[in-house]
Design brief:
This protein is of the alpha/beta class. The protein has 12 helices and 18 strands.
């Protein structure tokens, strides 16, 4: 959108200065401090709403605070005003902290979450040079996203294509990208198109994506799902769906209610599966290893039912099997790899080949309810938080703006704050 600029030395510039309005020149010489190099006037408040973890524990430790300091930008970053932020099982591991091991321990206090989507409201010179601008809609993944504003390095940003829902774009950053690397890379090409892949929990978030992606890549799929999520499981179009009873009083699959290994061997003609994608953990480790084909690979990526217990490597000798415990960061380690994965996912979404459900949306102020719901096993898709706006509804950088009565005469200009930009031409002339 057009943002009417004005020179600082002009009559209107002097008037704004006299009224206390701050604005920054686009002139950025060696002596200029960072703030003077910003390309757009910032109306971002100094504090924001955020969900802060000040002690490790259950969902009750997710504290909603209204005066947390808004992050400051380093050059090469942008500031995103979040519209949505995603809820993932890994967030619950970080919330629990040391109880889940050193990999999930962060210094206290910290803001929860690791993915979000919204509009850019500030850019730094290096970010602008990289092609990012105020008003652009983006999704991203960094730690600390349960909040109104997040500082994001440009290397972590994905512009959201037209036609892709912003809630779904949020889900791509963890669940979508995880499902992509699980079905395309983590199996180390030990499975070929036309061979069998077992995917646990296809009625939930990540593996709902994974089942569809595996099919798109040409693998034959067997999915496990609870009775309460059978409709979601059927929508993934697995070649075979194993429907399990639910644990009494809960929504989780009861993996003892059926002989899953026996069913897998029946479906595959006694061969087993070349790859098993397992985000359940403790409850399914024996099933996963038992379902493998000769020289198959057990891909263990989550601990929904508890951590996988240690087991002797000699256990794999029966079928010369492989095992890996991957994480997303190692499969989006370069910007090129991130774009390769996201481009394919966005393409599938736009073509209608990939369909993903946003199950529940929670206000940020009810963060504990979001974690409780996810950990109950009841979710049938992605769960997200809706980031709340300020009392004035927030600044919409895409809103149309009235032209000013005094147009610029030089490229060395500044941009007015939105409150001034929205005034009428008649008001401006005064």
């Amino acid at each position: 959108p057009f943002k009417p600029p004005i020179k600082p030395e002009s009559p209107l510039g002097k008037l704004l200065t006299s009224k206390g309005h701050k604005f920054y020149s686009t002139r950025a010489g060696p002596a200029a401090r960072f703030g003077s190099g910003r390309r757009n006037m910032s109306t971002v408040p100094s504090t924001m709403k955020a969900v802060v973890i000040r002690e490790n524990g259950g969902p009750e430790v997710l504290g909603y605070e209204t005066d947390y300091a808004t992050p400051k930008l380093a050059d090469g970053q942008v500031l995103v005003k979040n519209q949505y932020t995603g809820i993932n099982f890994i967030d619950t591991y970080f919330r629990k902290g040391p109880a889940m091991g050193p990999a999930y321990t962060q210094p206290l206090p910290f803001i929860g979450g690791q993915e979000g989507a919204g509009s850019i409201v500030e850019v730094t010179p290096a970010a602008a040079a990289a092609g990012f601008s105020v008003g652009q809609t983006v999704a991203y993944s960094v730690l600390g996203t349960y909040c109104e504003y997040t500082a994001v390095p440009t290397a972590k940003l994905l512009p959201v294509p037209d036609g892709v829902d912003l809630g779904v774009a949020t889900a791509i950053m963890t669940q979508g990208l995880t499902a992509h690397y699980l079905t395309t890379s983590a199996h180390a090409n030990l499975i070929k198109p036309g061979e069998w892949m077992l995917i646990h929990g296809v009625g939930g978030g990540t593996c709902q994506w994974a089942a569809q992606m595996a099919r798109l890549k040409g693998y034959k799929t067997i999915g496990t799902v609870s009775k309460g999520k059978e409709d979601i499981g059927l929508s993934t179009k697995c070649d075979e769906l194993i429907v399990l009873d639910e644990v009494p009083g809960q929504s989780f699959e009861d993996y003892e209610s059926k002989d899953v290994v026996g069913k897998v061997m029946e479906v595959t003609g006694g061969e087993g599966c070349k790859a098993v994608i397992d985000g359940i953990g403790k409850s399914t480790v024996d099933i996963s290893i038992g379902s493998l084909a000769r020289r198959g690979i057990f891909v263990s990526f989550g601990n929904a039912s508890g951590a996988v217990p240690a087991f002797p490597v000699l256990r794999l000798i029966k079928k010369s099997a492989f095992v890996t415990r991957p994480k997303l960061l190692d499969y989006v380690s370069t910007r090129d790899e991130l774009l390769m994965r996201s481009d394919e996912i966005f393409g599938w979404l736009k073509s209608g080949e990939l369909n993903v459900a946003i199950d529940r949306e929670f206000p940020l102020s009810e963060a504990s309810a979001g974690h409780e719901y996810l950990e109950s096993g009841a979710s049938k898709g992605k769960c997200i938080y809706k980031a709340e706006t300020d009392e004035l509804g927030g600044w919409d950088p895409m809103a149309p703006m009235a032209p000013l009565a005094c147009p610029p005469t030089s490229s060395d200009v500044v941009h007015l704050p939105p409150t001034v930009q929205r005034c009428s031409s008649a008001q401006a002339s005064k």
